[in-house]
Design goal:
Elements lengths: L2 H8 L5 H10 L9 H4 L4 H12 L7 H46 L4 H8 L3 H53 L4
Length: 179
């Protein structure tokens, strides 16, 4: 294999669009970007303002809390999709980088250490090493954001559950003749 053939081979590894098409063919909906994100609404600030307006999370009405949980849930679903795409891109870039490295290694002359060093100076290898690093960084960042979003949604969900349990406890107390 020569350098031109190696470069042509790269297109065989890009699978993001193929994966997306297979998912759509299976009939699974791919989450679209939530309205809040499209419109540039800062839901973190909105949350803090809501807590201040109602005097804390415990005082936010159920309907408002439920609507807000729905916003977070849609953002979490979208973040999971973005994370999956970032993971696919990272895995693809790693596979391309590793394949290029192996193929260029065989084209080099000299001993093992010299061949290895020469591969790392090849522009094609360096390009894909950079793409791999960028895609890995993106995946790590999106994963961290998604986990943070999930924690926020979990906190809101726990508050709703706590209130439901408080209401049930009050009813049980009333049913037992309590005050």
């Amino acid at each position: 294999m020569n350098r031109q053939e190696i470069e042509k081979e790269i297109s065989n590894y890009t699978v993001r669009e193929i994966t997306k098409a297979k998912i759509e063919k299976a009939g699974l909906p791919i989450p679209s970007k939530p309205e809040e994100l499209v419109e540039g609404i800062d839901i973190f600030t909105e949350w803090e303002n809501m807590k201040k307006a109602y005097g804390g999370i415990a005082n936010i009405p159920f309907t408002v809390l439920g609507d807000y949980l729905d916003k977070w849930t849609s953002i979490v679903a979208y973040a999971r999709w973005v994370e999956a795409i970032a993971d696919i891109d990272q895995a693809t870039a790693r596979e391309i980088r590793d394949t290029i490295k192996k193929q260029l290694y065989t084209l080099q002359e000299g001993g093992r250490e010299l061949r290895e060093a020469m591969v790392h100076t090849e522009p094609l290898y360096r390009e894909w090493e950079q793409k791999y690093t960028e895609s890995l960084s993106m995946m790590i960042a999106v994963k961290a954001l998604r986990e943070g979003y999930e924690r926020r949604a979990d906190a809101i969900s726990r508050e709703i559950t706590r209130r439901m349990n408080d209401a049930l406890d009050s009813r049980r107390l009333d049913n037992r003749g309590g005050a």
